[in-house]
From TrEMBL:
Native organism taxonomy: Bacteria, Bacillati, Bacillota, Bacilli, Bacillales
Membrane-spanning segments: none
Keywords of this entry: Hydrolase, Iron, Metal-binding, Nucleotide-binding
Domain spans labelled HD/PDEase: 16-143
Enzyme superclass (EC): hydrolase
Species of provenance: Paenibacillus silvae
Catalysed reaction, written as an equation: P(1),P(4)-bis(5'-adenosyl) tetraphosphate + H2O = 2 ADP + 2 H(+)
Enzyme Commission number(s): 3.6.1.41
Protein name as catalogued: bis(5'-nucleosyl)-tetraphosphatase (symmetrical)
């Protein structure tokens, strides 16, 4: 059964600390602005933004169980646990919140890593997650500037910042993040 927007907001906000809900509200705002600027569906962008981090505070064991028990992308289990919430979030958006729109589900699923061939809505939600007004990490202003040029320029700047951070901390990089970033560069050159 599909929930109304207000019911979704109630259900999602009650599952996370106030700070994460504030972040989510920022992503909703930025996603709608980007959707309107770049011709994506602002209503879908809003719903995807509401749900994008729904699983962010799930216990790791529960995320792992959902991934295993439902045949989700098990490759994630051998990578950083920070990557799991988008896959789990997409699954629960459909199962528990009645979201049946595959564009919205995909935008939730790919909001952290990106994917090769990101849809317009994937790009909007992923970039909004980087630039929402509450973000203040080093380099966010550069990403905001690039986001004014194009979704692709904004996302390349975003993924570059994530990859640089992981490199500087000698952490493993999820290969799809690199492939997504390379694909966006290829898209700009085509
Ligand atoms: O959920 P948010 O904090 O709003 O943002 P997100 O969904 O983009 O999560 C990013 C987190 O995942 C961030 O702490 C970095 C971490 N991470 C770890 N390895 C990777 C990674 N992110 C990406 N994109 N690629 C990785 O390889
Ligand atoms: Fe996230
Ligand atoms: Fe987020």
């Amino acid at each position: 059964m599909a929930l109304s927007r207000e019911e979704l907001i109630q259900a999602v906000s009650s599952q996370m600390p106030a700070k994460r809900w504030k972040h989510t509200q920022g992503v909703m705002e930025s996603a709608v602005i980007l959707a309107e600027k770049y011709g994506a569906d602002p209503v879908k962008a809003d719903i995807a933004a509401i749900l994008h981090d729904v699983a962010k505070y799930w216990p790791v064991a529960e995320m792992e169980a959902v991934i295993r028990d439902n045949g989700l992308n098990a490759e994630l289990l051998s990578h950083d646990k920070q990557l799991w919430h988008s896959e789990v979030g997409a699954f629960v958006a459909e199962r528990d919140y009645g979201v049946s729109d595959s564009e919205i589900i995909n935008a939730i699923r790919w909001h952290t890593s990106g994917r090769v061939g990101m849809s317009l809505l994937d790009k909007v939600v992923c970039l909004a997650d980087y630039i929402e007004p509450g973000r203040d990490f080093p380099g966010v202003e550069h990403i905001r500037e690039q986001a004014q040029r194009s979704l692709e320029e904004g996302l390349i700047a975003g993924f570059d910042s994530t990859i640089s951070l992981l490199l500087s901390q000698r952490r493993v990089i999820y290969p799809l993040t690199v492939l997504s970033r390379n694909d966006l560069i290829a898209q700009l050159h085509n």
